[in-house]
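Hi P.,

Sorry for the delay on this. The queue was packed all week, but I finally got your sequence through. Input first:
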Amino acid sequence: MMMMMMMMVAPRWVLFDDNNENASSRIARRTTRSTSAGVFAFASASDVGDEDDDDDEHENASSNDAFHTEVTTLYDPNTSGVFGFQSSEQFKEKVMEMRDVWVVQFIAPGCQPCKDMAPSFSRAALSLKSMNIKFGAIDIAGNEDLGRSMQISRVPAIVGFGGKKTWNPYRKIAQKLSNEYRGDALTARALREFAVKNLPDDEVERIDSIDELKNVVSDDVPTLVYVTDKSETPSMLKALAWNQKNRIRVVEVTYDSSTDDLLPTPVLPGLEAHEDEEDAVKLVLYKDADLTKKPILFDGESMSKDEVFAFAGKHLGPEVGDLEVEVIRNKKDGEKSSDGEKKEEEEENKYDSSLFIEKQPKSFEQDVMEKKEAVVVMFTKRTDECSLKVEEAIDAFVKLQFQAELYEYVVNRDGTDISNAVKLAETQTMGKFPNKEDCFSLMYYPFSDNKEDDESYPFEVSEDNPVNDANLKAWMYENTPDIVLRLSQDNLDQYLATDPFTPKCVLFSQKDDTPGMYKTLAANFKDDFHFGFFQAEDKNDPNLQKFNIPKLPAVQLLFINPAITPQQEASGNVQMNSAPFPGPMNYIYLRQWLMEAKNQIKKKDEAKSPGKVVPPPHVATQKEFHDECESKGGLCAIAFIPGTSSSSQSMFEDRVERAFEAAKLTSGRPFTWIIVDPIVQKTFARAFDVLPHNSPTVTVLQPRKGRYATMSGSFDPRELAKHCELVLNGKTRTFMIQDVPKIIDGGESEDENDYEPEEPIEEEFDLSDIMGEETDDATLGLTRAELAELERKKEEEELAEAERIKEEEKKQQKSSGKKKKKKGKKKKKKEEL
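Then the structure:
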């Protein structure tokens, strides 16, 4: 279902219609049904429950089973070539504990890109069936533990798994390593090329001399020999060597075809020399180690994989039983694993859990303190005495996956202290851990732009407060900052009109307080959405009818069509859409729904942006400012972004990316974008009314005329682009600056702060000299707040005037009626006389 409402810019965003309805009323009035793919909704909707999810009341088997049908909907188990996993346990059994090579697609309910790529994924699976590369798909909804352990942050995610395990000496576990597909193309060909890269590449032996053949052939198994001048082993030979291990050996003899020899291809033992290079034999099979015998020649018409497999299949050695998964160890001098080590691997793998990602103490600042995202840190002792307690604590976090990053720092392994980790734990826990009694310690670092200035919160374990799902939720939710705006009938319309280009996520519920799960969701998506909470009186609350909400709790996403251009935005008439969340109130479903919405909006933004837009350069010298801004003509958009000396690296990179997105949105217009640090170049920044407290922001400057307009508002790419358009169209008042201060090469020292910016000179006609256009709108240049107040007063005056006229008309009508009556009476008296 999609709901629409009209919005106008004048230049502030105002919600209105002909009947003077408020915005929320009009949403209900304009409700229509839609099956458009542009709505962010799951493909299979489940009923929304009556309560919020703090106690997981909706994580029942029926709803999960409904969402698991997503896999079988996409892939027919009989014809697609794709295996549909029904649980994370089944996935681990078939993929992680067997020697098959797998390519797995991780999907989620309603993921449109997952559906779009399904035909290509199926074609790739069918084309590689003969190479025994298996393809599978699994729904991460209901398998959150698997999504976390695989570090799946988006869907669809395509992940490859080789046939061998790798031994981790630090965690003392052996597990398959994953390899995520990062390519842009989702064609069958691209997926095939990715799939074959997961084949083991050490099963085919490469030699560069015929004399070395005697060292690799044997009487135990036949040897397939391929002569080649290529630098890479063909994938079909890798697949053959892996799938038929211990039944055939595959060897490549390499040679240099760029030599001056007329016949560079070497002659294999047992064969006669060839007289023509085209007659050279390149694929043979030796049944045993006797190289004096003539080998069996390849009898196929072409070197296709089917014919090569058929040729090898006729000469395989005796069958062998099921092979165990091999473990790769970094051993010196070819040292092999002992039986004791293999047993240790098996024991360690039993309680391997990847919910928590093990981190090194040296990267704590970067991994935890410099991250905006919420992080739970577990300091652990990985000893025999503590292993069970640690694993039980880790398992308690299964339902809290994705709500925070989960990191583990091991302070003691097998009785040996890890000094750097011990020091870190002592510092972070205020000396409470490590100690003799406890096996682990938990710390929570909530979402924050600057964790250095904020508190961390320990989990106090006791008999009354054991480590379980409910207590962990209470601990995290209590200490998560509440950035959700409380909504009511009084501020709802204002909320919808404020910063309209940032999508808004609104929860409607009967709860008194914002649910902890929703607070966490808001913190993790803070940079992409605005979050609101509307407390309904009951299920019959008239406001619910306005938003067409049949049940509580309910979540709706309000957003402006991302296909709208900045020029259309600046002109005024746009539509705001509303998409209801159809899934159960569970964090994993809500998270995936918002990620899908975010990705669709981003894709449409990118689709309307030209492919080649240069990122705004960082200007740090006067020459760079002249070259990048003053000398290029037109309008210069200066993004004032504080550098890493005054903000975190991640925050700085995010702001730079936003400026780049705004540059894309304004491409093709007369704007040149640059980035200046207002902290380092404070005199330059203050000349444009930019101070540390109001940055980051953007100033549009016309260097030739010395006029500028500095934006106030959120540092959102669409808002930045809109500001540029308003300046270009003469709908924002500009100010004159007599002399633009120079950029100080290398930045200013602390004592260079005696510059006082001159009072800006207001222009009566906005940008008339810049663009050669005159404007006579008296409201130009007013801020949104000023425009809102002006419109409110104007509306009050119009209403008052209308009331006054109405009263005057009533008085006139009454007066006129009395006079008519008097005249009638006089006339009647005359007639009687």
